[in-house]
């Protein structure tokens, strides 16, 4: 078979337009239906049966509830998930042994939360290969343990006493898939992470214009507690101390301070799916006693007329210190981050805590101002909304996908967790989650992985899509697929690569891109064909010259 014929065959297979023994326009043969044959289940019944049959059945045709739990946990759905907890409580026997489930009981279980269990069993949740992501996070956790640079915060005495060796990482996707490792149940104070929710509450109450009459939205480029206001006499943004004091003053100013604090604490409980939100009175007292800088910021803003009329400065500062002293743990903060990633809806309870517009504004400022005076560098290298606190917490949001919390008390010179920053670097180096990764080309097998894609989709559908785009000269699509983690040099079942197809069709720009992306400019298909021979057979001399040049460069590099 010559190259043109091979190319036509490849396109036919890709598009499904033809196949061995098929006739153009012919419909697939259907077996004749016999009245005495049992009717196959249809609709929802067929889906339930398919899911049920994916488990091992005993001699009575039942499945083990432990196997169901195991499948859900591998998908990232934990037994304490409120969406499925009630459904699972009746599954084990009274003595804790495994209970066998009939098809009808399985259908009842699946129906309790629409498609959640169905999607988990089928591997169609937000991160299809969640066990792989969990394994990678566990490995990164162990890689971070030897890092002991930085020091705990010392300007608040109670924070200075925290064990600096502690480390925890937790993740929660927008579908509620969860994983944690390390000291994930140890409580810590929110500190500056509280500024995110204070800003969101102020936005929901007063709107963007109402809030930003009193606080700016530009990065300050200075320390989080710098004695500085913008040229209008306003705090630079809600993510520095002055700005957070301002947004705190806007939260239900008509209520007394106890009720205002209850609202903030209740909001954190909603974001964390009813987590046990605490309050560290010792940290609160310690922070209040060492708050000269924050008092100075408050008086400076009052002098410039930044506050709304009638604001009680003393009470506002007390309220701000209380919000900073709220306690959560790493698992809870990951769920809160996932709620922001999910446009304000808590994944585990489906509670719409904030409006999407409020979350959009908050994530925008987290992207530009959330990491103190390291925010610009963080946006450049990590490219994700984040907020850190001097307790060692770092809340990372991957919009539409997941939230992550890293907690490690040792801080760098900017006040950010040293291990937290290093985790973010490692995550972005391996996964396609940077906000602009879709614009960046992957280089051969070093391309980042896309957590949103199934492993088989990446390996099969991705290759099919890549070879088709290459044959059509769709360079933008080729780049996008490479950025999504599809290896540009991967071959299909016949050993045909995207470079083969692009060369056979004379797609010069695609060939130029692929030659710069792959390590082998002369892959051989199962008929012995190469991109060069395909280009020559089809008379594409410009493509052939380009491939020869790449071969010469490769040969010279090997010789050296």
Structure summarized in a few sentences:
With 560 residues, the protein is of the alpha+beta class.
Structure description:
Strand 3 and strand 4 form a beta hairpin. This protein has 560 residues and is of the alpha+beta class. It is built from 24 helices and 10 strands. The strands form 3 sheets. It has a 5-stranded antiparallel β-sheet. The protein has a 3-stranded antiparallel β-sheet with strand order 5-7-6. Strands 1-2 form a two-stranded antiparallel sheet. Helix 12 crosses helix 14. The N terminus is likely disordered.
Keywords, separated by commas or semicolons:
single chain, 560 residues, alpha+beta, 5-stranded antiparallel beta sheet, 3-stranded antiparallel beta sheet, 24 helices, 10 strands, 7% strand, globular
Per-chain topology:
Layout: H1 3-15, H2 43-53, E1 63-64, H3 65-74, H4 82-89, E2 100-101, H5 103-111, H6 116-122, H7 130-144, H8 157-160, E3 168-173, E4 178-182, E5 188-189, H9 194-212, H10 241-249, H11 257-271, E6 278-279, H12 281-289, H13 292-303, H14 313-324, E7 326-328, H15 330-341, H16 356-369, H17 375-381, E8 386-388, E9 393-398, E10 402-407, H18 418-430, H19 455-472, H20 475-483, H21 498-504, H22 508-517, H23 531-537, H24 541-559
Antiparallel strand pairs: 1-2, 3-4, 3-10, 5-7, 6-7, 8-9, 9-10
Helix pairs in contact: 1-19, 7-18, 9-10, 9-16, 10-13, 10-14, 11-14, 12-14, 19-20, 19-21, 21-22, 21-23, 22-24, 23-24
């Amino acid at each position: 078979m010559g190259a043109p014929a091979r190319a036509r065959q490849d396109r036919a297979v890709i598009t499904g337009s033809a196949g061995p023994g098929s006739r153009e326009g012919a419909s697939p043969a259907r077996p004749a239906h016999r009245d005495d044959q049992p009717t196959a289940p249809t609709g929802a019944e067929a889906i339930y049966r398919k899911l049920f049959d994916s488990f091992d059945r005993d001699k009575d045709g039942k499945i083990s509830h432990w196997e169901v739990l195991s499948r859900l946990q591998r998908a990232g759905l934990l037994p304490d998930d409120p969406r499925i907890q009630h459904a699972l409580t009746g599954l084990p026997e009274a003595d804790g042994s495994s209970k066998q489930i009939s098809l009808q009981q399985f259908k009842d279980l699946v129906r309790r939360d629409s498609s959640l269990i169905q999607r988990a069993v089928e591997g169609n949740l937000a991160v299809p290969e969640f066990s792989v992501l969990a394994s990678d996070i566990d490995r990164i956790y162990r890689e971070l343990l030897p890092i002991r640079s930085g020091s705990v915060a010392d300007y608040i005495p109670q924070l200075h006493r925290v064990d600096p060796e502690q480390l925890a990482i937790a993740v929660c996707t927008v579908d509620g898939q969860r994983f944690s490792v390390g000291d994930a149940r140890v409580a810590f104070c929110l500190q500056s992470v509280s500024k995110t929710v204070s800003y969101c509450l102020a936005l929901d109450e007063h709107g963007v214009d109402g809030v930003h009459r009193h606080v700016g939205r530009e990065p300050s480029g200075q320390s989080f507690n710098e004695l500085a206001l913008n040229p209008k006499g306003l705090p630079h943004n809600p993510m520095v101390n002055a700005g957070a004091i301002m947004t705190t003053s806007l939260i239900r100013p008509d209520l007394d301070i106890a009720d205002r604090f209850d609202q903030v604490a209740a909001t954190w409980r909603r974001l964390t799916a009813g987590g046990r939100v605490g309050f560290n009175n010792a940290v609160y007292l310690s922070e209040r006693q060492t708050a000269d800088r924050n008092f100075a910021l408050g008086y400076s803003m009052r002098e410039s007329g930044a506050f709304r009329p009638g604001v009680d400065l003393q009470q506002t500062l007390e309220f701000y210190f209380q919000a900073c002293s709220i306690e959560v743990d790493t698992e809870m903060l990951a769920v809160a981050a996932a709620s922001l990633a999910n446009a304000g809806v808590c994944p585990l309870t489906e509670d719409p805590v904030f409006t999407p517009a409020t979350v959009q504004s908050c994530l925008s400022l987290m992207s530009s101002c959330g990491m103190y005076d390291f925010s610009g560098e963080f946006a450049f290298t990590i490219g994700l909304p984040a907020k850190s606190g001097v307790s060692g917490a770092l809340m990372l949001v991957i919009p539409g996908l997941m939230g992550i919390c890293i907690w490690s008390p040792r801080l760098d010179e900017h006040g950010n967790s040293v291990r937290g920053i290093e985790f973010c670097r490692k995550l972005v180096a391996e996964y396609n989650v940077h906000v602009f990764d879709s614009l960046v080309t992957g280089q051969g097998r070093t391309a980042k992985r896309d957590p949103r894609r199934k492993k088989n989709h990446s390996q099969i559908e991705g290759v099919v899509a890549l070879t088709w785009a290459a044959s059509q000269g769709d360079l933008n699509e080729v780049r996008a697929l490479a950025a999504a983690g599809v290896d540009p040099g991967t071959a299909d079942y016949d050993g045909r690569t995207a470079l083969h197809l692009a060369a056979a069709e004379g797609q010069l720009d695609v060939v130029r891109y692929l030659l710069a992306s792959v390590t082998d400019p002369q892959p051989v298909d199962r008929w012995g064909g190469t991109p060069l021979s395909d280009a020559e057979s089809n008379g594409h001399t410009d493509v052939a010259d380009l491939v020869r040049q790449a071969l010469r460069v490769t040969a010279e590099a090997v010789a050296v």
